[in-house]
Amino acid sequence: MEHRVKLTFYGGINKVGGNKVLLEDLGYDVKIFLDFGINTSEFSKFRKDFPYTNEIKALTDCHVLPREIDIPIKDIYSKYFIFNHTNSQYPQKVKECEGKVDPPTDLDGILISHPHRDHYRGISFVNRNIPIYTGVVTKRIIKAYSRSSAQRFENFLHGLKWILFRTGNVIQIKKLVIYPIHVDHSIPAAYGFIICTSAGIIVYTGDFRMHGPLQLMTADLIKKVKDVCKTKGQIESDFTYREGRVIALICEGTHIHKGSIESERIVKRHLRKLFKIIPFDYAIVQYGRVDWDRFRTYVDIAKKYNWKYIISDKDAYFYNRLNKKAIYDSMKDPNIENTDNIVILLQEKRKFQWKEDVNQMLKNIGKSERIMHLSDLKDLNKNFFLYITSIYDYDIIKNYLPKDLRGVFISSNVDPYAEEYRMDKRFISTDLLDRGVPSYRVHASGHSKPHDIIRFVNEINPEKLIPIHTEHPDFFRKLFKGERLEVVLPIYNIPFDITSS
Ligand SMILES: [Zn+2]
Questions:
Q1: Ligand 1 midpoint to CA 138 (Å)
Q2: Which domain holds residue 435?
Q3: Is 483 found in the same domain as 415?
Q4: Residues above pLDDT 90, as percent of the chain
Q5: Edge-to-edge, what's the strand order for the sheet holding 282-286?
Q6: How far is the CA of 37 from the centre of ligand 1 (A)?
Q7: C-alpha–C-alpha distance, residues 250 and 490, integer Å
């Protein structure tokens, strides 16, 4: 049997986001993709240039997704499940899809590491015969995004074949064995993958950090890699892993070029300092919606100083969904239904599927003082947070917040890269300046700082190190010069061979 793996990179090269890595195991005859994301800035540009286009061809022509002729996979994209928003609504499209079956394909699966769109958004377009492997909560968040987003082709997930896992499970695709292990990141349900191929062990990190509240999860990945490395000869009887070493590490490097000393604890400490004596009546705060740790940090501050914490009905939908079926205890808190400081602003007038869930939740809450309408905002006087996710929320500030109050803006956003919820910061800050609202930035990143990436790589000790999800892959080359490993910089659509010889 051949012991050979081919890796081909179709995204996340020299940039942050849009990871799509094709792993072809020639020995085991298995082909899988590691993530199938869409780069956020590339997609925004596409939408700006082609606001009405609903064709995969347009996406592939712009290289937002790889062209079919560039991928050695039969029929990777769906023939029937592509939604056209100019023609119909989702329910109508779902009906049209009844009985439709995509042609057979030779891709054995797509593994989604975590529910940030730059890692999964391409799955809306794939052949429905391809199994999508992802975490239980990862899928839940992806579905919540889809249900609460505009009915557009990039959010249409109908017909996908999900195969769900949790940490501790083992995925087997033919003879390929994969261990998904949780890692800490700025969103729950993030995983790294340990892949036992015919050529040796390959590790794919997804996005991770080592300074977050759940940093022990990332330590679990390192530990599991070491354990798997010790299983020399056990996984495959005719093959022993060379030196019990990882043959290739595909490692995210968002912050390989810069770091700061930070942690969620420091965020909390800084917020406490700001709130100890607060000369402001309200605070507008902003961060990625499903950055659960940040959400908890703010709600804790709101409770401590007895401020209201105003979130939108859509935010409440997300949090409630995660509360309800929390796998990790950390996601039961804050609890939307029971936390009195959390106030829900009924904001979204359009009809969405998720509205029913929200209505049920409001019924459960029952207390009228915890529910607000936009028109109630003008009566607010003091001691409230207003959480915003996007520039659309700025209209609320402009049109509804009382002008005579003294406000402060705290940017606590995810990294200033193309990840989730990129906000037009210039627009926000200029308008806030006009309004006389000063701003602060209190933040801890979802990505590892240079120290931690180096430590992580040293712990994994791979033969080959392949940086991805970074604008500075060459930093890896410089930082690991002379080490007992080879740094390989991926090139778009140029397969890279890994053999066990
Ligand atoms: Zn991410």
A1: 12
A2: 264-441
A3: no
A4: 63
A5: 371-373, 342-346, 308-312, 384-388, 282-286, 407-411, 439-441
A6: 10
A7: 10
- 316 and 227 co-located in one domain: no
Residues 73 and 147 reside in one and the same domain: yes
* Cβ–Cβ < 8 Å for 442, 405: no
CA of 123 to the centre of ligand 1 (A): 16
DSSP 244: G
Q: How many domains does the chain have?
A: 2
Predicted local distance difference test score (pLDDT) of residue 446: 84
Q: How far apart are CA 314 and CA 81, in angstroms?
A: 26
Spatial separation of the C-alpha atoms in residues 85 and 53, rounded to whole Å: 9
| Tens digit of each residue's pLDDT (9 = 90 or more) over 405-456 | 999 989 887 554 434 444 455 556 667 777 888 888 888 888 899 999 999 9
pLDDT of residue 236: 54
Backbone φ and ψ for 30, nearest 5 degrees, come out as -130, 140
- Shared domain check, 456 and 400: no
Q: How many whole angstroms from 354 Cα to the centroid of ligand 1?
A: 24
Question: From the CA of 255, how far away is ligand 1's center (Å)?
Answer: 12
Whether residues 165 and 272 fall in one domain: no
The Å distance, Cα 186 to ligand 1 centre, comes to: 7
Residue 494 CA to ligand 1 centre (angstroms): 25
CA of 116 to the centre of ligand 1 (A): 5
Banded pLDDT at 169 (limits 50, 70, 90) = very high
How many Å lie between the centroid of ligand 1 and the Cα of residue 106? 28
The answer, yes or no, to whether residue 184 has pLDDT greater than 90, is: yes
> Separation of 29 CA from ligand 1 center, angstroms?
30
CA distance 351 to 465: 48
128-132, 270-274, 366-370 — most confident range: 128-132
The whole-angstrom separation of Cα 449 and Cα 219 is: 15
What three-state secondary structure class fits 416?
coil
Query: How far, in Å, CA of 242 to CA of 247, rounded?
Result: 8
Mean pLDDT in the chain?
89
> Does residue 223 share a domain with residue 119?
yes
Q: Do 403 and 283 share a structural domain?
A: yes
Separation CA 314–CA 358 (nearest Å)? 8
pLDDT over 70 for what percent of the chain?
Answer: 93
C-alpha 27 to ligand 1 mean position (Å):
31
Q: Are residues 324 and 411 in the same domain?
A: yes
Ligand 1 center to 343 CA (angstroms): 28
Neighbours of ion ligand 1 (CB under 5 A): 116, 207
